[in-house]
Design a protein that fits this description.
Elements: H1 4-19, H2 49-66, E1 78-89, E2 96-109, E3 112-121, E4 132-146, E5 150-167, E6 179-196, E7 199-211, E8 224-235, H3 237-247
Antiparallel strand pairs: 1-2, 1-8, 2-3, 3-4, 4-5, 5-6, 6-7, 7-8
Amino acid sequence: MIPKNSFLIFLIFVMCMLACPQHSAAQLSSNPKARINNPLGFNPLNLHFGRGALYVSLLTGAAYYINRKNKEVEDKRLSFYLESGTMWSYEYPFTLIPETNLGFNYKVLKWLSYGADMGIYHPRDEFNQSTGLSMLRIFNRFYFKDTDKWRLWFESGVGVVYFTKIFPVANDREERFGTNWNGVVKYGMAAEYNVNPSLAVLLGVRHLHFSNADVYGKPRNPSSDSHGIFLGVTYNPRLDSSQQQKVK
């Protein structure tokens, strides 16, 4: 269960998002209608690239600092995961984006973890045929449920991805071309179920957002947003070692 202090931080986090102005000096002023400013598609939670990363960093940093002396901080567990999924863009040209990610996750509190991964993306539609590689995408996970049998978590992450071909490209409704380098933001929720003490399977839903944060201005940032599902496996070597010691 999430500690009381952490619940208050989460509440403040939500209130800040609701009260935050609907613009940012860097992105919204130059491109107020761009999808990068509202990747999830609803208001007032306009979690664009910069704002989403800032909120999550502030929230997790404050939560960890306040609870650093809590006994739960001793529950440090390192795990590795491999996952694969498919995302579908909800706007024209309705890009299909298969993705595969390999990464690690480190629990700093029973309800909070930090991690990083690398991913491969293959956006495909009538106009786009590219492959993207993300070498380092950092993320945080918030655990609503964490037992020996299963876990339920929400994650938010941000990173940089390089596409072999410009993504997105212009189409018959959009004249703008993207860039090879883009930022990637992910939001998602998943459940993990233990197969044995060290191995778990996971299933979840995710939102992916690609854009270059208007680095080259509005004409070079059409951006891409998509929703989808993913599944994978998680391996926890520490639990495996602990289980072996119990057997001995």
